[in-house]
Structure formats: structure tokens, C-alpha cells
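Notebook, p. 212. Picked up where the previous page left off. The plan for this session was modest: take the two constructs that came back from the sequencing core last week, fold each one, and keep the raw output in the notebook itself so nobody has to go hunting through shared drives later. Recording the first one now, exactly as returned: residue sequence, then the C-alpha cell string.
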Amino acid sequence: MLLQYNGQWVSDAVGFHDPTECLLNNKEALRKRSEVPRLIAFSSSSAQALLDQGVTGFISTAPFLFDYVQTMVELLKLIGNSNLVSIVDNNEDSSITDKFIEIIGQLNISISEIISVDHPNIINILNHSDAQIIVRNFF
């Protein structure tokens, strides 16, 4: 609350100040605007596709593939202290799977096997895998 004392505006106990402090000195500042990206990606695959095409200046509500892999690597350190994984491939986008495998390799993660989610013997293969951690690509 603002109080007036002897013709002067003073702040109260909450810390409000003279109203002139809130006035703009430069009226032209109101006419300037910043450019905001007009392109938004709502899924990791959309964001990754834009990034792969060299598109810059867009907003993503989902993590990029590299963020996903980096998080997975940190999780591997915490839960398994292992760098060997089996990958279950969803067979939807081979370019994303290839990129995923490339990033995993760059982060020193080894792949025991890559198996299709539709493989008829998937359970047996994963049970006999050297890897104790199974990663399924959901992107």
C-alpha cells in the first residue's frame, strides 16, 4: 500500500515505492518486440527430424534424441554400473535407430545385440544375453 506523507509518496512496510519508479523513461521501448520461434515440435521424433534437417530456432516440448541417450547413460551408471545393453528395435524408423546406435557408441556404451520387437524368439534371446540392461527405442 502506498502512503502519502507531507505530500510525498512513501513505501509502506511491504516495500512498495513511489509510482514514478514504475514509469517508462523510454516510450519507444514499448514498440520493440522480440522474434519468437514460430515452429514447435511436440514429440522427440519431430524435434529430432527438424534438428537433422538443419532447422534452427524452434521450440521443442520433448527432449532430443541425444538428451534421451545421455539420460539413459547416467541411469546405467546408477543402476547397473554397466556399459553393455541389448536394444529392442521397434522397426518404425531405421534412421532414428541408426542415430541412436551412433550416439550410444560415442558415449562408450556397447551393444550386445539389437533385436526386433517382433522377433518370435525375443524372450529367449534376451534371457541369454550378456547384457543385463534392455533398452527399447520409443522415439
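Okay, moving on. Second construct, recorded in the same format:
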Amino acid sequence: MTCPNFSSNAIIITLLVGILITASVTDLRAHRISNRLTYSTMLFGLIFYSLTAGFFGFLQSLSGLFLGLALLIVFYLVGGMGAGDVKLMAAVGSLLGPQGVFAAFLGTALIGGIYALIILAAKGYLMDTMKRFVLMLKTFFMTKKFIYIPPPRPEKAPLLCYGVAISLGTLASVAYRMIL
């Protein structure tokens, strides 16, 4: 049996676009992504692929869900993002499967990095952050130990609505895969 075609199914693409727009808007407005949205998407993905591709489809959807969760859970655990962001990537995984969610993760990482640089620049933290980063790298290469260098002035970390980056990265990866 072949893998279900996760990225070209019109139902999945339409649903995914709606979910990602909703997640982005709520993340920008309220700085949270609804459990109702993420959990219902996960459930839909599992049921949809069970019905359309049988047990293999269920396993592919479940694998995508767990891979999406695994790719971002460390960032949540160290305080780099919210639980809603992690659950959104897991929901994306349930719809796109493991290959699709990995591609979405790569797109998200690229767009998220650019987004973070823009926010840092807009808040006036970019140069300080870059100098600290270079100094930490130099220290690491000289001592072979990672030593965190705190910012010279107390600063509140700029708030990133990472649901937007997940949405844009996912849509970019799906569009790219559809073109190929």
C-alpha cells in the first residue's frame, strides 16, 4: 500500500488553510492558540486518514502528529514558545503526515528565524543580541564550554507570535511540494 497523498488532497489543503489563518489571527490578537482548534484538527486528521487510507493512513497521520509534537516540544520546555504552538505543529502533522510536517518544520524554522530578526530589529535588540551571540561562540570555541552571557541591560524578551511563523512556513512548504 502506498502512502496517502497528504499534500495534494483538496479537502486537507482547504481545511489546513482555514486552520492556519484562524490560528494566526487568534495568536496575534490573544497570544494563544485554542485547544479546541488544535485538538479537533488532530482528531479530524486521524479519522479522515483512517477512513480514506485505512490503518496505514491512521498510522501515517499519528506519526505526523507525534513528529510535529517532537520537533517543537524542546522549545516549549525551555520557554521558547507556548504550548499552543507545539499543539498547532502536531495538528499540522496529523494532516500532512511525517514527511509533510518535517517539511513544514523546515519552512517554519526559516520563516521563524527571519521573523525573530525583524522583531529584534524593530525593538532595538538586534545588535546587542548579535554581539552577545558572537561572544558566546568565541568563548565556546576557545574553552569548548558553552557559557551564557546575559544581556547588559535587563530586557524583556520580545513576544513572538510563533503561530504565524508555523502557518506561513507550513503553507510555503505545502505550496513548494505542490509545485514539484
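Notes on construct two before I forget. The first helix runs from residue 10 to 30.
Flagging for discussion at group meeting.
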